[in-house]
Amino acid sequence: MKELGRIITAMVTPFDKKGEVDYAQAKKLALALLSSGSEGLVIAGTTGESPTLIHEEELRLFAEVKKAVGNKGSVIAGTGSNSTAEALEFTKGAEKIGVDACLLVVPYYNKPTQDGLYRHFKAIAESTSLPCILYNVPSRTITNLTAETTIKLSRIPNIVGIKEASGNMEQITKIIGEAREGFLVWSGNDSDTLPMLSLGAYGVISVASHLVGKQINKMVYSFVKGDTKTAAEIHRHLLPLVNVLFVIANPVPVKYALSQVGFDVGSPRPPLYETDTKTAAIISSVLRKFKTDLPLK
Known about the structure:
Elements: E1 7-10, H1 23-34, E2 40-43, H2 55-69, E3 74-78, H3 84-97, E4 101-105, H4 114-126, E5 132-136, H5 138-141, H6 147-153, E6 159-164, H7 169-178, E7 184-187, H8 193-199, E8 203-206, H9 209-224, H10 228-244, H11 252-260, H12 277-287
Parallel strand pairs: 1-2, 1-8, 2-3, 3-4, 4-5, 5-6, 6-7, 7-8
Helix pairs in contact: 1-2, 2-3, 3-4, 4-6, 6-7, 8-9, 9-10, 11-12
């Protein structure tokens, strides 16, 4: 399996003035992220506004970003769905394009049982040779993928890890301690990254890395090398920025912040809209206090 990276950005999807996907800007952003601390990219995940993208747009994004990136970093396709059949076929399509892995979100809205979740992810994994990363985000999906189910799923060879955004440190500890050897856990919340690293997590699938990727990279690798003092200092320093990027629904704040530092990714697609004036002022006031890492040329 290709090394997917400890620092992976859940990349926003740029849109143009007409609200169409801006593929040229997506490729530019992907390369900028990989030159500023990120080692991989999730395309068409939650931050990429997957609920408002149609499959043709997503498949083209996978293809164009992968072609632009080449071997500079991993490209992970968000192919999950609350329909097993849809996720299975979409994952097969992404595999044909040549992505490096897929990200499979817990099915949302229809509230499957834990056995249903196990069978859902098992069916998708068995339909592809791609490495599969589970994505547990109960704040959005309602349903929590339990530690027991995750551990059971880790026995499937090409289910290689999980993006854990539950914030439940007891659950995360159990997964790290009892999943099969080599099963990787990425933090799904920027604010949880350092605490999760201390439990044995591998890295982070990040939103804040759009802006401070080099600093997050330094934090993670400082911890890995045993320099916990530096890692903690960076974590404390970045926390106000991390928090303001989630002051309203992601990716609205990070898209606004990117525009403020000079990288235009357009507005979100409805039902998400541009940030209101009051929230914009809050984001701007925090953003001014930070050095950002994203190259603008």
